[in-house]
Amino acid sequence: MHAYRTHTCAQLRAADVGAEIRLSGWIHRKRDHGGVLFVDLRDNFGITQIVADSDSPALEVLDRLRVESVVTIDGLVKQRSDETKNANLPTGEIEVFARGVTVQSAAQELPMPVFGDAEYPEDIRLRYRYIDLRREKVHKNIKLRSDVIASLRRRMIDQGFTEFQTPILTASSPEGARDYLVPSRVHPGKFYALPQAPQMFKQLLMVAGFDKYFQIAPCFRDEDARADRSPGEFYQLDFEMSYVTQEDVFAAIEPVLHGVFEEFANWEGMGRSVSPLPFRRIPYRESMLKYGNDKPDLRNPVEITDVSSHFEGSGFGRFASIVESGDVVRAIPAPGTAEKSRKFFDDMNSWAQGEGFPGLGYATRKGGEWGGPIAKNHGPEKMDRLADELGLGPDDGLFFAAGKEAQAAKLAGLARTRVGEQLDLIDQKRFEFCWIVDFPMFEYDEDTKKIDFSHNPFSMPQGEMDALESKDPLDILAYQYDIVCNGVELSSGAVRNHRPDIMYKAFEIAGYSQQDVDTNFAGMINAFKYGAPPHGGSAPGVDRIVMLLADEPNIREVIAFPMTQRAEDLMMGAPSEVSPKQLRELNIRLVEQPGQGGEAKKDTAEAVSPDAG
């Protein structure tokens, strides 16, 4: 017999009754029924009920052990009586009579229980993450993550992609998010950077003649945490293809994502559907108008409409003056709100003010009769015309966002989401994918008063060199695209600008010289001068994919060892101070910084030359 187990805690069935077996696992739960002790023994695979009574030599040992102690049980498989069978457990038809027990590791008093679904503070959960990971829901999430990554890898290989690994220690990039820097011991005063993404390396693989690349790539960005973004590091399904158009990229990755989401749509019995292939394509400007953002949740049926023209010369003076000044009015339908009280609409206005906006106008409607100050001043006939254009029913209300276009779009987008949530319009049983396409290549930066790149500076402009030379930069679109699911952006991607002449021209429009490009992007621009194929790709986020499939609101729940919101690893004590010896080896010294209360605080490092005093 094996030293630790003949079966896992999920394997035994009625057919095993009468067998002498050995199980190992954690004591999940204990129940004392007057001289008979029932123990739920748990391992990675499941739970088996152990029974020890006065005839069992294991009774005394099991009785004194705390839960989460690790034991090995030798015992006899017995049939449970009909009234004690547990249909919720795969092993629920049997139990194991304990004939012997070996204590592998006795547990101390726990900082948090494993059994049950009670919520615990983040600092406790992350400080004792190895215990938190034993809890059923989190444990299943991490197993799901492994299964999803295996499925992604298998599907990419089946699509003809080859897996490569790219460097972790690389050069710092002047573009994008803040780098994590790694000091070089052998090159004093110089630093490596952890890759924000394998972007340049994967493009160089295309230049090197490899046709279809992918990897499950670790990426590192010194960014603040959000519900859908982990601080520090994350993983993405990074891929690149040669000799492809934008549609070729879509055709390659859509079956992979659709297949993975269909494979796990019924995880834990959730029974969700996935939008059919091909995924919908939505131009950026249409998305900003209809949904108020570039990552729309298409499960929400509410669509925003620009109704500025309806208020030209309107009796509602405020909107009329807004339109006359060149700003906009956007309408957000509120379906079936006839029976909602005035408080519902007032609460929406208060919510908008709490989000930092001046307010959210509204008009109520019941049986075709309008209510509210906007409708009263605008007039019922004009309101009816507006409602007809929007396709509203007689019991559908309206919210209005007015002002500068960008602000009105933002408020309308947030209000659309809130209306969908408040009115329970969002179908929780669907995964709705779409591509956002036709992003502007450039935008005007109000702070710097100059034209800059709006999305990705290395994308191919639509129209290529001719567009750069003949069009207003703000009218140029790029072959850039985002893949979005249920309002979550999974990735950005692009058909790349593989021609040095077009790249120099694009950067020139954004105010960068040829020398700037040659200095900051030397590796890539030099490679392109030796013959580069047209290529493109994307990089859907693995963490976000798993978060959606696990139906978790926070990305932390699908990462084995996440950091806190402040990018701290409480379990391992990172970031931490290092010894003076390590700093000397790296030619780094700490600089005293003013702390709170006038005290000095060592929190900044600087590189020094080896012979500095």
From TrEMBL:
One of its GO terms (molecular function) is aspartate-tRNA ligase activity. ATP binds at R221, D222, E223, E489, G541, V542, D543, R544. Residues 199-202 are annotated as: Aspartate. It catalyses: tRNA(Asx) + L-aspartate + ATP = L-aspartyl-tRNA(Asx) + AMP + diphosphate. Homodimer. Aspartyl-tRNA synthetase with relaxed tRNA specificity since it is able to aspartylate not only its cognate tRNA(Asp) but also tRNA(Asn). Reaction proceeds in two steps: L-aspartate is first activated by ATP to form Asp-AMP and then transferred to the acceptor end of tRNA(Asp/Asn). This is Aspartate--tRNA(Asp/Asn) ligase. The lineage of its organism: Bacteria, Pseudomonadati, Pseudomonadota, Alphaproteobacteria, Sphingomonadales. The gene is aspS.
